[in-house]
Amino acid sequence: MGVLSVDDLELVPLPLEALVAGEVLIESQWLSVDPYMRTRMQAVGYDYLNRDGMGKWLPGSPLSAWGLGRVLESKYGGVVPGDWVVGHLPAASHGVLALDSPAGSLAPLVFHGQDAPPLAWLHQRGMTGFTAWLAMCHYGRLRPDDTVLVTAGAGAVGSLAVQWALAGGARVLASAGSVAGREWLLSLGVAGVLDHSRPADFTEQLARLAEEGIDLHLEQLGGATFSAAIDAVRPRGRVVLCGLVSQYNGSDPRRAPHNLRRLAAIGAHLQPFVVPGHEAVFWQPFQQQVAQPPASEFRAPLEVFDGLESWAEALCGLLVSGRRRGPGKRVVRL
Ligand SMILES: NC(=O)c1ccc[n+]([C@@H]2O[C@H](COP(=O)([O-])OP(=O)(O)OC[C@H]3O[C@@H](n4cnc5c(N)ncnc54)[C@H](OP(=O)(O)O)[C@@H]3O)[C@@H](O)[C@H]2O)c1
Question: Which DSSP string corresponds to 192-241?
Fold first, then answer.
């Protein structure tokens, strides 16, 4: 499979299994689309997903997504119809979810009562918020005198990472593939914006904005922009490798940049990371910090697609540049 297209994904009716003890039937109300979903379709690599119980998506596999659903029936003690569940749900209008032995290391979060939990659980309090916090506050070891570069800065993880860096007092540069995305980044207060849809002159764009180089880089795209950022890292600087989305549609989606060795030569630190495996230790500290200023005041827009039938288009469009309707986290409202 090369470039993922809507024709590769099919909306089909599936039978619902009868509930057994420990399970709930949910009606999905919101579902996320995320770049890592494309990596679940790669035959080779990304084995951490298997370790975490999430598994590969082979032809014919039903899909799943971080989302928000309402409980219709329950065979799990303490959870009743009308309660809400946030977590990895079947990418379907309805699904059966095991609450006693969930896939993945973060158990679904249950909210009791008639009021839906805030949509912040889809983004800044959920997985993309957790990723941005791990990247910038934990692995990035952000300092106020840093010059920071964030690629894919107008997207879900990037936009929150940018705001953590701004809140930490750093001088922040960020890239987006559209004029609207770059204008939005400037409205957040970044010192300069770059166009990553022009990888050929990304080095020059960066040199103009950061003559003396960068201290901390958050990489999300891969390819020429990653190489340009590595060339701009200062001695003993830090690079946090969060993702390589520009390569996910290829057959070899984890190509190392040609100049990776420069980091060793200048004593810089490279920290690749994936979120699975961090939940047990870091989820609670993250939740404490994200619920209070500055994070509680971050701008965290949702880019909403409507209807389950739009889920495929929403996912495919996330894997190419310049197909955003707006900044922030892309989600589907059912
Ligand atoms: N390490 C982890 O555990 C973890 C967790 C979550 C996410 N991630 C990674 O973080 C990155 C961002 O994820 P996200 O959820 O926040 O997505 P996102 O930034 O909201 O969406 C991806 C954006 O990347 C840009 N892009 C996509 N394909 C591109 C291409 N071929 N060339 C250039 N730009 C391209 C597009 O923005 P423009 O339209 O502005 O170009 C697109 O909207 C991804 O690499 C993802 O895999 C990692």
Answer: EEEETT-GGGHHHHHHHH-TT-EEEEEE-S-THHHHHHHHHEEEEEEEEE
Domain with CATH 3.40.50.720 in the chain: 127-272
CATH 3.90.180.10 intervals, the chain: 6-122+302-333
Residue with tokens 């590969």: 56
Mean pLDDT of the residues in the chain = 94
Residue pLDDT, tens place only, 259-308: 999 999 999 999 999 999 899 999 999 999 999 999 999 999 999 999 99
Cβ count near 59 (within 10 Å):
7
Distance from the first to the final alpha carbon of the chain: 28
Q: Fold for 6-122+302-333, please state it.
A: Quinone Oxidoreductase; Chain A, domain 1 (3.90.180)
Q: What's the burial of 22, exposed, middle or buried (CB within 10 Å: 0-12/13-18/19+)?
A: middle
How far does the centroid of ligand 1 lie from the alpha carbon of residue 324, in Å?
11
Counting ligand 1 atoms within 8 A of each CB, the residue from 194, 220, 278, 304 with the most, and so the one to mutate, is 220
Residues with CB under 6 A from ligand 1: 34-36, 128, 131, 152, 154-158, 176-178, 181, 196-197, 220-221, 242-246, 273-275, 318-322, 324, 330
Q: Which CATH class is domain 127-272?
A: alpha beta
pLDDT in tens, 151-170: 999 999 999 999 999 999 99
